[in-house]
Structures are given as C-alpha cells and as structure tokens.
Amino acid sequence: MTCNPSWHEIMDELLPHEEVQNKPDLIARVFHAKLTKLKKDIVQKKLFGKVAAYVYVIEFQKRGLPHVHFLIILDPRSKIRTSDQYDEHVYAEIPEQKTNPNLYEAVLKHMMHDPCGNDNLGNVCTRDGNCKNHYPRSFSETTSTGHNSYPIYRCRNDGKKYLVHRVQLDNRWVIPYNPYLLAKYDCHINVEVCSTIKAVKYLYKYIYKGRDLVVFALSNPDNISIGDEISSFQIARWISPPEAAWPIFRFPLNSIHPTLSLCK
Ligand SMILES: [Zn+2]
Fold first, then answer.
1. Residue 110 C-alpha to ligand 1 middle, in angstroms?
2. pTM of this prediction?
C-alpha cells in the first residue's frame, strides 16, 4: 500500500497556502493511521481469513512518500487454494463503470501499470524495450495457479480500452487488487496470492531488501585506512522528510507477529 497524498485526511488539513510536500508530519501520521486500519481489516476482521502470522516493512520512496510491504500467512483452514477462492479476493480487470463507478475510477487512478516498453521507453520498468514486470500481461479467461510462480489471474479480453496517460490500455495493464481494500483506502494497493514456496521466498527477500546505495573502497591490506566513517555513512544515507518524521512519532518501521526468538 502506497500513501496517496490526495487523501482527504491530508488535503483537509492544509491551509490555503500550504503544499502537501511541505507537511511530512501530516503524511507520516495519516499513513500510520491508514496502516493501523489496514492491519485491523486483515488481522482482526479477517478479510482474507484467519491470520496465523504476518510481517510488514515500511519503506519510503525517493520523493518521500511511505509505502508498506505486508506479507500475511493464513491459517491452514483459511488458505486460498482454488481458482474460485483466488477470484474472490484478487481482481485483475477493470470493473464496469455503470455498475461500479467508484471502483472503476479507483482502478484507473491507482491500479494501471504506466505505459512502458516501446510505448514509453523512459519508464523505469523498461529494459531493452520490454517491461521487467511483464506488462502487458496475457489475456486469460480463467485464473490458474502456476507452478512455482505467481498465479495467472482472470483477465478477460472484453475489447474495451481506456485512455491512461495518453495511451490506450486494456485489462492486461491492471495491477492485481482487492476491490474492498481499493475502494476503502483509495490508493495504490496491490494484492497478490502466493502459495508456492518459491514465491514466498522471493517475497521475504523483497521485504527485507537492503538500501539502494553503499559506499565502499578497495585498499591495500598492508595499508588499510578507515577513512572518514562519518562522511561515508552520510553519503550513503538518504532520508526524506516523511522518513525523518516517522521515528519522531515513534512509529515502528517493521512488525512481525508472532514474535520469533532464535535460541542457541
Ligand atoms: Zn512496465
């Protein structure tokens, strides 16, 4: 889930001359409140079923907006296994505008992968003219669970196209979402089911990935110089204002439940 700087809880608090990027305290507090609600929906209200364990990590994008990676492990009796169960929780299609106008708006606003590949070579996901996130996905009449991979969600070719950032996009560009969470939280909130061991291992690696930058030096082992450790640390440290505000409010950067302790 990524912070939406246009949430009314943020916009309502701005004075006429204020801009959201100058209110990191407000961004941090509203995102923390939304995350607390999300956790309640998932753990206490059992949106996906009974939760056996969870882990989440807060990260901050380069421009400073917070987002959370949230991995949920369901109780064996609540596991999502069949195609029908997948379809109940995860959608990868644009809903009907007439019957579901709010969700339709939310999908187009938050859940369409930006045009990329040869349509937009400048997009960060484009590598050698192709999308590294595999968009556009393939059309699929039904949901199927791949072997050691993410499932292929139902993504039917209904012939409809929608203008997003001046490019016509169809269902193949929809990032998987849960309709309840998307409609309720009005922000980018990607939901996927991973039930194969390979996908689970990948996710754990993802949520614990390290920093984007390191500073290092090669030196002669006979003449090792420690150098200026403080400036080396500062060069590799990028902290945006909302990231600085987060610990001031004593908000945790990660959480794991149940608590695990390693015994010798
Ligand atoms: Zn892409």
1. 15
2. 0.86
